[in-house]
Write a structure and sequence with these properties.
Layout (H helix, E strand, L loop, with lengths): L2 H11 L9 E6 H14 L4 E6 L6 H10 L2 E4 L2 H9 L7 E3 L6 H10 L2 E4 L2 H10 L10 E6 L21 E2 L5 H10 L4 E5 L9 H22 L6 E3 L17 H11 L9 E6 L1 H4 L3 E6 L2 E5 L2 E5 L8 H5 L8 E4 L10 E7 L8 E9 L6 E4 L19 E9 L2 E8 L4 H8 L1
Parallel strand pairs: 1-18, 2-3, 2-10, 3-4, 4-5, 5-6, 6-7, 6-8, 8-9, 9-10, 13-15
Antiparallel strand pairs: 1-11, 11-17, 12-13, 14-17, 15-16, 18-19
Helix pairs in contact: 2-3, 2-9, 7-8, 8-9
Length: 423
């Protein structure tokens, strides 16, 4: 019996899962702690790892990650607020939004929060603002797009020729211009790149990091001293959604980087990472009840309460974001018999609101449960889901001796409460 199956059984014993259940999310805190441990062990001590808060902004999750030894990468003022509430040290936070306001920049400089500049107009703002903060300890860098191409999912590839992110290194005379930008600004002490995430092969990611490391060396040589002391290589390790196997691993990624960019594995630079999905995805799942089933044409259809409002990417881009499901009986037994071609659907009123389509699954019946795997990142934790999940609770699970302890992270609101809040 898998650990997630054990969690389901404990949910039943504790009467958290009842016949009235619509959907819950569960974060495996034991698994989260183990994942961070594997990450820390894969890289040498000059690597400092941050968690991309956008991947899972639940405060209890962030506190657990902080306790496990991670920093925080934030891409919005709201995420920065969450990171501060989770007690991340200021020195362990990086602000990466491509749309920073004057106020955002001022907060970073005044509070010594590191940031990466996205473009020349933002640089012009920093040139003026930094005059008022001559003693800031913020590590300021430039996000650079090495323009090395796309991975298998264009929407998560950030190093294309026309990416919205960063300074396009290969356009015109930009390479030399960036060197001059650094030479004229001794307060630029970092440099950043992020090639992409899901769908991007490790070789493509390593190629972008190699470009940026060579650029850092060129800049330091031109300045005549080591002005750049930090290289931020982003995150983006892909996740295997097709099975429980973890591939690629952090160790495999570290081995490739050591082969392609050995300089990073010396003490010359501090290296920052920004992993999100690879840390959280496999440490979470959604459990939802089958409300109704029907036969339509040659298809068995199971209607659940988890669809586009929680499993957004899969519903809208099923080819890019396929996801696994497992069926369980109402008393928590895994379903293994009578496979039929099945659509597992969500509750939203449009035809594409499907978790899986045309999958051979043991036949689901009314009041069965469906476990949706690998949803610990960018699913039930997404900020834009909050107002559309009136009946979804999120729990953390952790083993204490032989008993699984469940704690509510976010309590569900009743529909009446949501209506009252809207009126």
């Amino acid at each position: 019996m898998s650990f997630h199956h054990q969690i389901l059984n404990q949910l039943l014993v504790d009467e958290i899962v009842t016949p009235e259940l619509t959907a819950i999310g569960v974060m495996d805190f034991d698994g989260l702690e183990l994942t961070v441990k594997q990450l820390l062990e894969a890289f040498p001590d000059n690597f400092k790892h941050t968690f991309a808060v956008k991947a899972n902004g639940l405060l209890s999750v962030l506190k657990k990650l902080k306790e496990s030894g991670m920093g925080a990468e934030v891409a919005s003022p709201g995420e920065l607020t969450l990171a501060l509430k989770a007690d991340f040290d200021i020195n362990d936070i990086i602000f990466d939004s491509p749309a920073k306001t004057q106020a955002d920049l001022r907060v970073c400089l005044s509070q010594n929060i590191s940031l990466n500049i996205d473009n020349l107009q933002e640089l012009a703002r920093l040139d003026e603002l930094i005059k008022g903060f001559p003693d800031t300890k913020s590590f300021v860098g430039f996000r650079v797009n090495p323009q090395i191409g796309s991975g298998g999912i264009s929407s998560t590839s950030t190093a294309t020729q026309t990416s919205k992110f960063g300074y396009p290194l290969a356009d015109g005379n930009n390479y030399q211009q960036l060197i001059e930008i650094y030479k004229q600004r001794p307060w630029l002490r970092s440099i950043h790149t992020h090639t992409g995430s899901q769908g991007c092969p490790l070789e493509l990611m390593a190629k972008g990091i190699k470009v940026i490391t060579e650029l850092a060396e060129r800049i330091n040589d031109s300045v005549g001293q080591q002005q750049i002391t930090r290289i931020d290589i982003g995150g983006g390790l892909p996740v295997n959604f097709s099975s429980d196997e973890i591939k690629p691993t952090f160790s495999e990624y570290a081995d490739l980087l050591k082969q392609e960019v050995p300089l990073l594995f010396t003490d010359k630079y501090q290296v920052k990472t920004e992993f999100g999905r690879a840390v959280a995805a496999k440490n979470g799942f959604i459990l939802t009840r089958v409300e109704y089933t029907k036969q339509s044409g040659d298809r068995h259809i199971a209607i659940t309460h988890a669809g586009a409002q929680i499993i957004t990417r899969t519903a809208f881009l099923p080819q890019s974001w396929p996801i696994r499901v497992t069926g369980f009986t109402s008393d928590g037994e895994i379903k293994t018999e009578n496979p039929v071609t099945t659509d597992v659907a969500g509750p939203c009123c449009f035809a594409a609101d499907l978790i899986t389509k045309e999958k051979s699954l043991p036949k689901l019946e009314q009041n069965d449960y469906v476990m949706v795997h690998d949803t610990g990142a960018y699913y039930f934790s997404n900020h834009f889901d909050y107002n559309s999940l009136p009946r979804v609770a999120v729990y953390s699970a952790q083993k204490h001796d032989t008993k699984i302890k469940l704690n509510c992270i976010r309590k569900p609101e009743t529909l009446d409460t949501v209506v009252a809040n809207m009126s």
